[in-house]
């Protein structure tokens, strides 16, 4: 039963990769090369790298602990439910464990291992019954649904900013700002239907410009208080503003990235290019016009 379940999951992952148009073997090779390199760069650039890796590991385990997945496993493999959940949790956590152990982060590695066995025992969180009021309009939908879905993440970034101010750690304050912008980018991971796009009744280019402007405007509601607090409390104005402007450029790229493969999800190659921009931002001057051109071509068949 265990082998059968793992085979099913492996086939699903393999088919998902194949649908992107990238040869699976090539993607596996790229992942094996890119993962150690990105980890090394992360540890070189910030002292928060171990916490980011451990946090991402635990976040993935929480994502696995969904009601629908658990119900499927219980329905088909009830006798082996916990064994399967522990095994797949360990497989998902293994790359993060290796990263932490290579850099001698034993306590965080132990925390991840404890999470592997404890999170499957927990009941999935139930949605909050009341609707969270937001300052955003229903059109477009990204910031309304995104704020409600990731409200705790936004709150965590502001708590992190408070810690940065209390301990006078400017870099941690910048990390909190980038965390807010990263959360705003997550809002654009959900695709809308063709009808909602068609309903704008604009040209493709105009539609993309409007979407980018709305993204910047709505993101300002979430990020400007953090930017002002960081700049004033640390008396660092130029650097804070410049880095915030750079984060806005990444947000624009994310909006264009979303529609570069519409109505499908962006492929893996585009995702890799987007990730490379994090390490070499000048690539944005190439990627933004490219994504704008590709997205416009995609949307012309709808608008």
Describe the structure.
The chain is an all-alpha fold and 303 residues long. The protein has two domains: 2-121, no CATH class; 142-299, no CATH class. The chain is built from 14 helices and no strands. It is globular. The termini are far apart. The model has no long low-confidence stretch (mean pLDDT 79).
Keywords:
transmembrane, 0% strand, ABC transporter permease, 2 domains
Whole-number average pLDDT? Answer: 79
Distance between the termini: 49 Å
- The succession of helices and strands, N to C, reads HHHHHHHHHHHHHH
Number of strands: 0
Shape designation = globular
Largest sheet: none
Query: Uncertain runs with pLDDT below 50, 5 residues or more?
Result: none
Protein name: ABC transporter permease
Keywords: Membrane, Transmembrane, Transmembrane helix
Transmembrane segments: 21-40, 46-64, 84-102, 150-167, 173-191, 212-237, 243-261, 268-290
Organism: Polluticaenibacter yanchengensis
